[in-house]
Structure formats: structure tokens, C-alpha cells
């Protein structure tokens, strides 16, 4: 297996340095032009690919332009409008409820605090962090999606299993100035190289510092299971 740096803070710094060099243009891949569109896109992206979300929202954002539009939408029609999105029926309910809350409590605007955002239907801390970072330029934490969760554990940077606990671990290790980009870099790397089922360790810029490297290691620290 690769040989990680002397401690987790040093490991995180080394990983970030290499990923910044490998993915200099890494950024959010969802398409949006305002805060409401960002919020909707991130809600739809849960357990769904950004590519599919972008396909659906191209027409959705033409039809629904305000919180009021979502609030007044027929839920069945809204579900049809986002058909193809994972759990589209549930998410239609979320979007209608979000529209109602934004209209009734926030003058139709997307709020800029973690507490107010996580009070919205279908919005957890991960979604709220994305909206705060890219909609309001407020960085309160690190977005821990499946890529971040998997790769941070593989690299020995995180030891916890739940996204909330992993976020707390990472926030102690990673400089605040890197919190936002940390997620984009890990997502880029997770899509290109460090995939869930069959990571391309031979092509990985982190292989020599990765304790999960399957080139000479036995266990995937992300799952705790032996490599197949």
C-alpha cells in the first residue's frame, strides 16, 4: 500500500496540493443562474447525477422562475416536469414546499443561514453548504458527498463513517480557505480516477500516499472490505 504522511493533517495537505495541480479548473458542475435555481438543482441532485439534473433543469428553469411559481405548482405536474430525476415524486413535494416557505417566510428569496436553509423541505446540511458557498459566498463547512466520504476514508484522512462526523473531522484538518475547493477536487478525482467500484490506482496521483492502494494493499478503507 502507499505510505501516508506522518499525521492526518500532513496527509490532507499533501493530498490537496496534488489535487489542486491535477484539477486546476475544478468547480461545481450544476448549471444555475441565480440562488433559487442553485437551491432547486442541489435538491434534485441528491442521489442523482449532475448531468441528469442539468438536462432536466434546462426546461424546468424556463417554466418555474420564482418561488411563487413552485408554490403554486400542481404537484403532479411538477413531478412530471422533473421526471427522470431520482425520486421525482418526493422531490416535487420538496420543491413545492420550498416555494411556499420562501414565499411566505422569506419574501421569495433564498435565505443565507444554515438554520434557515436546513428548515426547508429536502434540505440537509450538505445541500445548505452548497447553497451558502455558491449562492451567498458563505463558507460554513465542507460539503461531504459520496465522493468526499469515500476518498477521505480511503486516504486515511477521515475515520468516521457518517457525512456529518466526517465533515467535523475534515474541518479540523483542512484550512478554512480550502473548505469549498476541497469538495470540488475530491468530486473531480472521484469521477475521473477514484471511483467507487474499480478505482484506477495505476493512474492516481495519490497512489504512493494512499493506504488503500489496491496495487499493493488488501483493504479498501472506505468500506473496510478486502479488494475484490
From TrEMBL:
**HhH-GPD domain: which residues?**
44-192
Q: Indicate the transmembrane segments per the record.
A: none
Sorted alphabetically, which Gene3D superfamilies does this protein's record hold?
Helix-hairpin-Helix base-excision DNA repair enzymes (C-terminal) (1.10.1670.10), Hypothetical protein, domain 2 (1.10.340.30)
Reported EC number(s) for this entry are: 4.2.99.18
Q: What catalytic reaction does the record list?
A: Hydrolyzes mismatched double-stranded DNA and polynucleotides, releasing free thymine; 2'-deoxyribonucleotide-(2'-deoxyribose 5'-phosphate)-2'-deoxyribonucleotide-DNA = a 3'-end 2'-deoxyribonucleotide-(2,3-dehydro-2,3-deoxyribose 5'-phosphate)-DNA + a 5'-end 5'-phospho-2'-deoxyribonucleoside-DNA + H(+)
Q: What cofactor is needed? A: [4Fe-4S] cluster
State the superkingdom: Archaea
The GO terms describing molecular function are:
4 iron, 4 sulfur cluster binding; class I DNA-(apurinic or apyrimidinic site) endonuclease activity; DNA binding; G/T mismatch-specific thymine-DNA glycosylase activity; metal ion binding
Q: How is the cofactor bound?
A: Binds 1 [4Fe-4S] cluster.
**What enzyme category does the UniProt record give?**
lyase
One Gene Ontology term from the biological process aspect of the record: base-excision repair, AP site formation
- Write the record's keywords in alphabetical order, separated by commas: 4Fe-4S, DNA damage, DNA repair, DNA-binding, Endonuclease, Glycosidase, Hydrolase, Iron, Iron-sulfur, Lyase, Metal-binding, Nuclease
Specify which residues bind [4Fe-4S] cluster according to the UniProt entry for this protein: 194, 201, 204, 210
**Any idea what job this protein has?**
DNA repair enzyme that has both DNA N-glycosylase activity and AP-lyase activity. The DNA N-glycosylase activity releases various damaged pyrimidines from DNA by cleaving the N-glycosidic bond, leaving an AP (apurinic/apyrimidinic) site. The AP-lyase activity cleaves the phosphodiester bond 3' to the AP site by a beta-elimination, leaving a 3'-terminal unsaturated sugar and a product with a terminal 5'-phosphate.
Q: Which family does it belong to?
A: Belongs to the Nth/MutY family.
Q: What is this protein called?
A: Endonuclease III
Q: In the UniProt record, what gene is named as encoding this protein? A: nth
